[in-house]
Amino acid sequence: MALNSVKAIGGNPVESPLAATVEVLVVGAGPTGLTLACDLARRGVRALVVERATGLFPGSRGKGVQPRTLEVFDDLGVVGAILAAGGAPPVGMVWRDGVRQGEYRMFDEPEPSGSAPYAGPVLVPQWRTQEILYARLTELGGSVAFGTEVTGLAQDADGVTASLADGGTIRAAYAVAADGGRSAVRRALGIGMTGGTVDPQPMLVADIRIAEGALDRDNWHVFPPEGAHPAEGAASGGDFAAICPLPGIPDFQLVARFTDGAEPDLSPEGVRAAVAARTHLTGADVTEVRWASDFRPRAALADAFRAGRVFLAGDAAHVHSPAGGQGLNTSVQDAYNLGWKLGTVLRHGADTGLLDTYEEERRVVAARMLDLSTRIHHGTSRRGAATRQLGLGYRESSLSAETLLTAGTPLTAGTSAGDRAPDAPVGAGRLFDALRGPHFTLLAVATDAGLPPLDSDLVHVHHTAERTLYAAGLYLIRPDGYIGWTGRDQEGLRKYLTSTKLEVLASGA
């Protein structure tokens, strides 16, 4: 396909990249690439997403959306659609020889909290999440060039030139590889992956439909091997299956493990045989196979998340076992971290050194989530508070400066620099309402401290007397909802902006 005739889904023409000035090229239209493109579009950054496939990903694979990711989607304006399309994970039901053995709680129940508007995970088929993000991107004026494959990259001091399979090229100031675990961009950059196989046995994942009455939709059905506890899952050492109803649609997601040395058969007949061999259902009970794929669970981390003007995000940077539902969520949050930094550099002229903090912050988090996913896969950790990702933060980041607390004062969870800013009352509303949008937020709590002149478009200032979670003082909250700086006076804020290359937040900078 010629580059100047690429079309988006729905037949809407995409402007030829050869004729456009593209600031950011995003390679891959999965959850990572679409999230990043949405964030850049609302910041006025000219970005283009290119996708090798001719359409959006068709399967339910990454179906668990964690509370922290729901907060990201809230900020991007899509959480209503996500919640409408999703549902709470059903309680597990253990089966043995066609007989129900009892319910099994797969997830620790979260405690309700006013600091987190979304308490637990939501199940949404990955294809539906991508449809929602794609619709939001087009609403924001962005686009995806489907059927466009990047085969190589060349960098110079001013930008990146991407070579395409059809012989065309795209020029951009920066590029982001969001093209999955087998990332062609990562390979082109020569960046290795450290890690390996979590489970040597192949697994099958498929979207299926089941004859009415053959299996209820009230439970997440688990079929462990003889003698294995359901918590062992893939660590059981034998064949197993899990069949989960997907909310809002007639489909179920099937996950099956194979230990006979054979590769999974992805044909409808093969999927039916896998169900019949591991459950009390017959092959005929599977009325339709809508999508199927196979994989071997891996845990691998890219040796670097950046090479010059090219960044790695999502599965291109870290590959997870699906256990615990961390892959998609960690990936979306990569994009959320990178988006505001690219926007602040490209739209507002911040020092490019700000971009160095992407790898500094996200590679540590990805490593931690890889370890958690692996432990859950092996049955040594549960799906609890850590999987919800609300406690992740950047206290050790060079962008985090805690000057409000005195030496020796315990760091209260959620209110120290580097932490996710918890929701709290602000005047007649809520802090999360004030945070929503691409700006920084300066929260002044029970203080009349003077403030330096700040760019009112880049920094929104809010005063509150409420001290339910926040001690008296000043809190500069980043666009991604993490506290960057805490302090008591404007001089401390000035020093922070200078030291972190964020002088652009000051008025007249």
UniProtKB/TrEMBL annotation:
Superkingdom as given in the UniProt entry: Bacteria
Keywords: FAD, Flavoprotein, Monooxygenase, Oxidoreductase
Keyword Glycosyltransferase: no
Domain named FAD-binding: residues: 22-372
Molecular functions (GO terms): monooxygenase activity
Annotated PANTHER family: BINDING MONOOXYGENASE, PUTATIVE (JCVI)-RELATED, TRK SYSTEM POTASSIUM UPTAKE PROTEIN
Protein name: FAD-dependent monooxygenase
Species, as recorded: Streptomyces flavofungini
